[in-house]
Structure formats: C-alpha cells, structure tokens
Amino acid sequence: MSAVLLTRLKIADLAAWTALDAGRRLLPEGHALQRIVREEVYLFEPEAGRAADGFEGALSRAIESSNFFVNPNKEQYRFLTAKARGDALVGPEGAWGILTRARDETRDDGLLRRLVTEHPLQGLGSVRRAKIWWLWTSSTGGNAAVKTIYNALGPVVARRRGLLVNPHAEADMKLEGEVPWSVVERFLTLPPPAIGAAA
C-alpha cells in the first residue's frame, strides 16, 4: 500500500477556469457544468518488502516544513497515509472525476532523486504522478448523464469533442462514487490500455 498526497490551488486556477469556460460550450443541450477543480496526485510507493509507514512520518514533516510539494501561499493539500487513507478514493461532495496519467511512465525519478537528497526517506521506492479533474455537473439525462458529459469533455477525439485528456499522451479513468485505492494504484502502475480502448 502507498501513501498519497493530493494538492490543489487555493488561488484562482487559470487552467481550470479555462477548461470550465471551454467545457460549457462543448456540452450538449440539457447538460450543465458548474465547476471544475484540478488536483495533483502523488503516489509514494515503498520499496519491495518494505511498508509505507517506514517513511511516512519523515515525508509528512517534509511536506509541512518545505515547499517541495506544496507552496502554502498558493496551495492546499491532503496527505493520506497508507493506513489512514481508507479503502477507497472518495471525491468531493457532488463531484465525479477524470483521473489522468502519462501514457508512457508515471514514475518521476527526477523528483524522487531530488526529494531523497533533501529529505532522506528510508524505504521510499518511487513517486508516481497523476492528475484529477473534479467536475460538478447537472443533467436532465438521468443515468446516462455522466457518460454523455465524459464523452463531451474527456479524451479529445474531434475538434468539438473532448477537452481534458490528450489520448496520445495520457490515459484516463472515470471516477464515480467510491473507487477502491487498489484500482487507482493499478491504473497508475500498469501500462495503460491501447489508444482507443474504453476508459
């Protein structure tokens, strides 16, 4: 099991504002987009045979005492230890999400090297990165609403279809309700599906 850090801007996020404006224009009639929040995800994996609690205390202090991951003037964060994070990723109330990851490799070895040089963390094996777009939407479409909105705002497949995911550089997964952390970790660690496969 891995520890997780989630960060988001507490000042205006221009990328999210731009996506909100563009996304509203892409939605079909009967669907509305009220809000978008962009959240960065850091997954801290222990070395093989080690447990995350061996480095979590030092990692928590590093997050709190430096701006290595979080600039306290601009960002807010949630640090979830492997044991305290619960069984599932739960989104903000009323939102569903699109989790995106690099299509080639999610490990950030450069970040790991810089981190352990500045903050020695015994037992930390890798740092993986991803991003979540949390969306607050409404629709008259019933149960098919999220699928319709995802098709309009998810992977870019045409000039007027898709916005938040570049399928040639990113893989993505819809986040609806409670998503088991095991599913999230598998998505971030295994090779992504081929381009064009269902999300």
For this entry, give a set of tags.
single chain; alpha+beta; six-stranded antiparallel β-sheet; two-stranded antiparallel ribbon; 8 strands; 26% helix
Please outline the major beta sheet. Answer: 6 strands, antiparallel
> Could you say which structural class the secondary elements and strand pairing correspond to?
alpha+beta
Please indicate the count of domains: 1
- Which stretches are low in confidence, meaning pLDDT under 50 for 5 or more residues running? none
Averaging pLDDT over every residue, what do you get? 91
Task: List the strand order in the largest sheet.
Answer: 3-1-2-6-5-7
| Rg result | 18 Å
State which percent range the strand residues make up.
25-35%
Helix content: 25-40%
Discrete helix count: 5
Task: Report the principal-axis shape.
Answer: elongated
First-to-last CA distance: 24 Å
Find the count of extended strands (DSSP E, 2+ residues).
8
Note the run of SSEs as H and E. Answer: EHEHEEEHEHEEH
Write the layout of secondary structure elements.
Elements: E1 3-9, H1 14-26, E2 31-46, H2 56-65, E3 75-80, E4 88-90, E5 96-102, H3 109-118, E6 124-139, H4 145-153, E7 170-175, E8 178-180, H5 181-189
Antiparallel strand pairs: 1-2, 1-3, 2-6, 4-8, 5-6, 5-7
